[in-house]
Design a protein that fits this description.
The complex is a heterodimer.
Chain A: E1 8-12, H1 23-38, E2 42-46, E3 62-64, H2 70-80, E4 84-86, H3 91-103, H4 106-109, E5 113-115, H5 119-126, H6 128-137, E6 145-148, H7 151-161, E7 165-169, E8 179-181, H8 184-195, E9 201-205, E10 211-219, E11 225-233, E12 246-248, H9 255-272, E13 276-284, E14 291-297, H10 302-311, H11 315-323, E15 351-353
Helix pairs in contact in A: 1-11, 5-6, 7-8
Chain B: E1 5-8, H1 10-19, E2 23-39, E3 45-56, E4 65-71, E5 77-82, E6 87-90
Parallel strand pairs in B: 1-6
Antiparallel strand pairs in B: 2-3, 2-4, 4-5, 5-6
The chains are: A alpha/beta, B mainly beta.
């Protein structure tokens, strides 16, 4: 048995409030609670949404229907004194809250250990500047980009890189506020909006017409690393994954392209020191083997929920088990029941995700979709 | 005779037979590119590519041989090595990339 096995774990929910909002994190959080209960760990959950499965009374031992923000979570930590915290199961809100709790010393003050990917790895994936630096260390290509913290900086950066540019918002929730800008006016407008709620934006080369491919990767504390599923967006770069038609497994990659990106995914995940589950997004030039790593999410995501459904591999459950110190070779493959979780599912079928726009609910809205 | 030898796939089975061990037919052969093999004495697992119907009976290895890799799924032998001499072999195909074209060994 792992001597460092925690007795009491605090799990951060997604902080969503509406019925059905962030349903993928309700799923990942519920799976994590099940994994913790399986170990006999006392589980404390913070999630303000009563309309979720994870807040049902048969799952967590203690539930706080409070916002997932530092002031509230600090009070809960003070009261409950958990010995560990899980940040990767409540989407971007939980991840940001965890970074903030670490930054203001709350975790250190109460001796709360972070399970799963360490704070440093999370910061490396969230801070675009650090992210680019870390990936450059192992000669992995990232889009040419410049960080800006004022609209003036953003305009200067866009001029330097050349239009059109992709404007990304650091620490963004579901890619919110990111988008393509084809001229200076658009950059100014988008950057001003984004910088109102984020400390920095990233102006980067826009990879028009490149394929968008992502891999779901798991890694355990023994450095075993497998890519569970890959997915291809039918919509090109620039359309957010959440709004794209996504197909699993990828349909247009050659064997060598598939394995090239797989190898890079594993190298990146090992270098960053991810523990548990993460998602890595690539842009691939359709006419060459040229690629860029767009981003890494050190947490369960909408894509991982899709990958779990597509392959039957319970990513959230396995990620929770891995963060408790189990190895991939100890855990069972829940599909077969006899083989191990250390495998890469082979799909002889395809799964397609098509977003559905319920436009009737918003009759007053223009019937054109897109990020604000 | 001390020529350093690395057996692969059928070479693994031939080396085992030459050493005096047995092989037997598996109920389900290993035929895929996602076979997990654990390195003996560690928790390190490699995802390997394989295509074989027989396996080396691990218990039949002579004393001066030891298991090198074991399949994580069915615990069958996936590699052996001599305890002192440079003889070793793997049941899987130790390639960095699985594809039907020429490539180098990653060992």
């Amino acid at each position: 048995m792992n001597p460092r096995k925690p007795k009491k774990v605090l799990l951060l929910g997604s902080g969503a409030l509406k019925i059905g909002e962030a349903g993928e994190f309700d799923y990942s959080g519920s799976q994590a609670i099940k994994a913790l209960k399986d170990e006999g760990t006392h589980t404390v959950l913070v999630n303000p949404n009563i309309a979720t499965i994870q807040t049902s009374d048969h799952l967590a031992d203690e539930i706080y229907f409070l916002p997932v923000t530092v002031p509230f979570v600090e009070r809960i930590i003070e009261k409950e004194r958990p010995d560990a915290i899980m940040l990767g199961f409540g989407g971007q809100t939980a991840l940001n809250c965890g970074l903030e709790l670490d930054r203001c010393g709350v975790l250190a003050k109460f001796g709360v250990r972070v399970l799963g990917s360490p704070i440093r790895a999370i910061r490396d994936t969230e801070d675009r500047d650090l992210f680019v630096r870390r990936l450059t260390e192992i000669d992995v290509c990232v889009p040419r980009s410049l960080v800006a913290s004022t609209p003036q900086d953003a305009l200067r950066a866009a001029g330097e890189i050349g239009y059109p540019v992709m404007l990304r918002v650091a620490f963004a929730l579901g890619g919110l506020g990111s988008g393509i800008c084809s001229n200076a006016d658009e950059v100014a407008e988008r950057a001003t909006k984004a910088l109102a709620h984020s400390p920095q934006v990233l102006v980067e080369e826009y990879l028009t017409g490149w394929k968008e491919v992502e891999y779901e990767v798991v890694r355990d504390s023994y450095d075993n690393c497998v890519t569970v599923c890959n997915m291809e967006n039918m919509d090109p770069m620039g359309i957010h994954t959440g709004e794209s038609i996504v197909v699993a497994p990828s349909q247009t990659l050659t064997n060598s392209e598939y394995h090239m990106l797989r190898q890079i995914a594993i190298r990146v995940v090992r270098h960053l020191g991810i523990l548990g589950e993460c998602n890595i997004q690539f842009a691939l030039n359709p006419r060459s083997h040229d690629y860029r790593v767009i981003e890494v999410n050190a947490r369960l995501s909408r894509s991982s929920a899709l990958a779990s459904k597509a392959t039957g591999y319970p990513l959230a459950f396995i990620a929770a088990k891995l963060s408790l110190g189990h190895s991939l070779t100890d855990l069972q493959n829940s599909v077969t029941g006899v083989t191990k979780a250390c495998f890469e599912p082979a799909m002889d079928y395809i799964v397609v995700k098509i977003p559905r726009w319920d436009l009737q609910k918003s009759a007053m809205q223009p019937s054109k979709s897109g990020q604000p | 005779m001390g020529v350093p030898t690395l057996g692969i796939c059928l070479g693994h089975q031939i080396l085992a037979l030459a050493a005096g061990a047995d092989t037997y037919k598996l109920k389900f052969g290993h035929r895929s590119q996602n076979q997990p093999c654990i390195e003996a004495g560690t928790k390190r697992c490699y995802i390997t590519s394989q295509n074989h119907g027989y396996a080396v009976r691990q218990e039949s290895l002579p004393d001066d041989w030891e298991p090198w890799f074991v399949n994580a799924n069915d615990r069958t032998n996936e590699g052996i090595r001599h305890r002192r001499k440079p003889f070793l072999s793997v049941q899987f195909h130790p390639r960095s990339i699985t594809r039907p074209s020429r490539h180098s060994l990653s060992f």
